Amino acid sequence: MTSLPHLATGLLLGATLATTANAADSRPIAITDPGYATAQGTAYVVEALIQDRFGDQTRIVNTTSVPVIWEALNRNNGDIDIWTDVWLPNQAPFVDQYTGDKGQAILAQPSYAGTQGYCTTRATAEKHDIHSVYDLSNPDKISAFDSNGDGKGEIWLGAAGWLSTGFERIRARDYGFADFFDLQTTDEAVATAALDAAVKKGTGWVGYCYAPHQNFARYDLVQLEEPPYDPNAWNVVDSSDPNWLEKSSIASAYKDAAIHMAYSRSLKTRAPEVAALLERVTFTTEEVNQLAYAIAVENTPPREAAQEWIAAHPDIVAQWTAD
Known about the structure:
Protein name: Glycine betaine/proline transport system substrate-binding protein
Order of helices and strands: HEHEHEHEEHEHEHEHEEHEEHHHHH
GO cellular component, one term: ATP-binding cassette (ABC) transporter complex
Strand content: 15-25%
Helix content: 25-40%
Number of helices: 14
CATH architecture of the largest domain: 3-Layer(aba) Sandwich
Keywords: Signal
GO molecular function, one term: transmembrane transporter activity
Structural class: alpha+beta
Pfam family, one: OpuAC
């Protein structure tokens, strides 16, 4: 995503802070599962590699809160050791705060590409001649997305609390379509159910989208055109300011994301072979789409999907695990 990428406030970690370095060193390596399929795919592949190749004990930490994940990485005591879904630039504030000389987390260098924007189905785009974000402010076209007859379309901006959802509120206003739509912030599962229903009924759906994502393997989606990314067109005020929305402005597409992994600095001494592995592991967008499709659409348990993916890609795994 990511969504984003692009994620929510959620479960707090219950782990007690370790009181000694030795206590932290004895703990299993903790890997984040944020509950969405793309990050689950990469997280469980990493878990399987650590267990199968190095024999290290691992544990999965379920939390949907990106700030909590980064705070736990920065504690550097085993609360969370590995986070496999760092979207840049979305998570740049956390990278700036918690890596380098400022913190105890390390951003792994390998990355793969991610995209973000607005998507609709190809059938809707072609039937209603909707190809650009500016088409969403055309009163003659928004009826394609008006499912309840109230004269407004419905557009999904993301889940409440996702970092990207705040950006989407700004973009909806600055692209000029906010007043024509009900700006929805629901769980992603609710949005996907609405998309699935629209596809089956042959009606319109539009919303925030990001890749990699299983929906690109499941549906025929097209991304709406936007002005090319311009860093000077992004002026985003921190959401702690009560007037952040009024003070912020966005007038161009996202920069294509680079999706990295991050890990706690203590891994370099606790499990140096794991830290070295994380500096070699990278995926392609399509590979993560495949993993996410298996988990979210085929309902394969994430751990099983990861093992199947590893078995199907021995050459890639061999490159990652070579001495």
